[in-house]
Structures are given as C-alpha cells and as structure tokens.
Specification:
With about 400 residues, the protein is of the alpha/beta class. It has a single domain (about 5-390), classed as 3-Layer(aba) Sandwich (Arginase, Chain A). Helix content is about 40%, strand content about 10%. Strands 2-1-3-8-7-4-5-6 form an eight-stranded parallel sheet, with helices on both faces. Helix 8 (about 230-245) packs parallel to helix 9 (about 275-290) and helix 9 runs parallel beside helix 10 (about 310-320). It starts with a strand and ends with a helix. Bound molecules: zinc ion (2 copies).
C-alpha cells in the first residue's frame, strides 16, 4: 500500500447539494470512494478528513461582500435581487441551506491536499470534492460557489512561494481559475475543453493567452463538438508535455472534470474511458519529471454519475498509487450495492466497448480542426524554442 498518497474524504461532501434534480451531484464522490474500498485499493491509512477553509483563506481570492452574501443566503436571509447580483439563486446555482459551510468544506479539502503535499507528508493527493473551476472573485457561476483550486493556488503562492501549473481537463473551460491568475506569470493555466461556441461558459478561446506580465502563461485548447479519444488525447499529450517543459512548474494541480465522455448529458464530446486512463497517467509522469512528484488532483464536472464518474475518478487514484494496470470487470459487489439506486445499468467493465456509439461522420474534419487549434495554442512556445535552437 503506497504511503505517500492521500485521499481526502468526508461524507459531509454530500452537503454541497442544490436540490434533488440538480445535475451536480456529490454522490459521485461517494460512489468512487466505495468502488475503491470494495476493491481494497484504498487503505484506512490513506484516507484523510478535510478541514473547513477559514474566512481568511477564502479572502485570498474571494471578495468579503460575496462571502457574506453566501453566508446570509445559506441562512435564508438574502433578498432575491441582492442574491442575483452575486450569481446566487439562479437556475444553475440555487441557494441551499448552509451553503457557505458546505462550500468552504470543499475548499478546505483541497487545502488539506496542499498541506500534505507541501509539508512532504505525501507526494500525491486527491481531493475529489474540489474542482469548482467556475467560481469567480465575487460571483457564483456554473454550479460553483467558492473556487477551491484558485484558493489553493493562491495559498501555495503565499505560504510556499511556488510556481503552479494548473491543468484543467473538464469539458467546460476553466474560466474562474484562468481569470484569477490571468496577469500572473507564476501561475500557468492550461484548459482543454469543448469549444465555447455552443457550451457554457463560452470562453476558452485559443487567443486568451494572459495579460500584462502574465501574457503567455494561459493556454487554451477548445476542441470541436464530437471530438473522439484519439484527437483529444493527441491535443492533451502534446500540449501538457510542451507546456510543462516551457513553464517548469514546482507543483502541478489537475482539475479532473469527467464530463467529456460520450455519455455526459451536458456536453457534446465523444470521449470514452480511454482518455480517463491517460489523463492521470501523463499528469503523474509530468509531476515526477518536473516537480519531484508534487501533484494534487481535484474533481470537477461529471454528470453521468453512475456510468462514467466513478470509473474515471477511481482511475486517478489507481494511477497515483500505481495500481492502474487494472482491466476487466468492475467488482460485482459494488454493482449489486448500487444498481438499485441507478436509473441506468451500471457498467460491468473498466473499459467501454469499442462500439459505444455510432461512427461520427465528420471525424476527419474534426481531427484536422483540432490539430490546427493545437498548433495555434502552442505556437508561441514552439516558435520561441526554434529561435533558441538557431
Ligand atoms: Zn464541466
Ligand atoms: Zn508517483
């Protein structure tokens, strides 16, 4: 059992709940945890309870007035018109009881991961409750209230003075984190996502490269709708390797939204479990190559909570702990326990069948378009490298 990996977990993650019919459902963290426990892949000694983030920690990136509004909203005392100014009480981000406490726990979870890794008590840490990348300084957005990853990055800078590479593989653009560090050359953000042409939040264009001193430290690869594994992985692999080589981070924070899968009801990509094997594998390799192993992974989106997220997120932990050479069947015990709660048949194998979906007619066109986007996104670092070689 690997002793230098930790899994931050609490049943209290379930308290981050908008309502019964909201797509954001933290049951997926419990399903993942339970899958790993059933497999004996997660030991008691590796499970760490999260702490709750303090107000001062939230102030690192959030406005005081916003935090006060979230607290008041969670007590049921915030007038609707004021709430809406803070992005609270919308269809995406409804108000729910004690929303401040539930949200601050998710931030605390990611901070707990940071403290373990940066104190040297762990090499890798997984905080699946976090990954709320749409949270803004003074506004809730896209199911996200506080931005745990942004707080964690600022906390890493203030407390440990390190250079952070943030890699976001959620199907949606990692806008909240990008904008918070847009002018900071010591934080490099890389987001690969479905193009914002038809999808929330609409940003993440390849031309968003940062501003001021931070120009050149923001990377975006917006892939086309219906993008498949091979094209997606080509883009991810080339970009991650070249950006890591360019930036030379001290620590890598990955956001692991699992909503690029074909089954995901909110997005239009055509990825399968193949990408969820490769995403953590490369992050792991890069962390050892550049950061002496320092790697924090958080969760994120993922709206097929039964068929996609538990497998995808379990694979992050299995990769961290060097147990990822798993294939074949999902433990029957886990299926038996959860099938009665699931509206769809649970997957029986780790990998998806080859014929998961019918052939995509525009495949060649999409592949070509994505290759061009990668070239555009990486052009500055490639041309700079060429100049240095001359
Ligand atoms: Zn997403
Ligand atoms: Zn490792």
């Amino acid at each position: 059992m690997k002793k230098d990996c930790i899994f931050i977990y609490s049943d209290d993650f379930q308290k981050y709940k908008f309502h019964d019919h909201h797509p954001f459902n933290q049951l997926r963290v419990k399903l993942t945890y339970d899958l790993l426990r059933t497999m004996n892949a997660l030991d008691d000694s590796q499970i760490i309870s999260p702490r709750i983030a303090t107000d001062d920690e939230l102030f690192l990136v959030h406005d005081r007035a916003y935090i006060e509004a979230v607290k008041t909203a969670g007590e049921g005392r915030l007038p609707e018109e004021i709430a809406l100014n803070y992005g609270l009480g919308t269809e995406d981000t409804p108000i729910f009881p004690n929303m401040h406490e539930a949200s601050a726990l998710l931030v605390g979870s990611t901070l707990t991961a940071v403290d373990y890794v940066l104190s040297g008590k762990a090499k890798h840490a997984l905080s699946l409750g976090g990954g709320l990348h749409h949270g803004f300084r003074g506004k809730a957005s896209g199911f996200c209230i506080y931005n745990d990853s942004a707080v964690a990055i600022k906390y890493i800078q203030e407390k440990y003075n390190l250079r952070v590479l943030y890699v976001d593989t959620d199907a949606h653009h990692g806008d909240g984190v990008q904008w918070m560090f847009y002018d900071d050359p010591n934080v490099c953000t890389f987001s690969i996502h479905e193009t914002g042409r038809y999808l929330f939040p609409g940003t993440g264009n390849v031309n968003e490269r940062g501003q001021g001193k931070g120009y050149g430290f923001s990377f975006n690869i917006p892939v086309d709708a219906f993008t498949e594994d091979e094209s997606w992985l080509d883009a991810y692999t080339q970009a991650f390797r070249e950006i890591a080589d360019f930036f030379r981070p001290d620590i890598i924070l990955t956001q692991n939204g699992a909503d690029s899968h074909y089954y995901d009801p909110l997005t239009h990509l055509s990825a399968t479990m193949k990408i969820y094997r490769e995403i953590p594998k490369l992050a792991h390799e890069m962390a050892h190559q550049y950061c002496e192993g320092r790697w924090i992974a958080v969760g994120g989106g993922g709206y097929d909570i039964w068929r996609v997220v538990p497998r995808a997120w379990a694979l992050i932990w299995l990769e961290m702990t060097e147990q990822s050479n798993i294939s074949g069947n999902i433990p029957q015990e886990w299926i038996d326990k959860w099938q009665k709660h699931s509206p769809v048949p649970l997957p029986t194998e780790w990998d998806d069948p080859e014929d998961l979906y019918p052939p995509i007619p525009r495949k060649a066109e999409i592949t070509e378009k994505n290759a061009q986007t990668v070239m555009k996104a990486l052009y500055p670092i490639r041309s700079n490298r060429q100049k240095m070689n001359l």
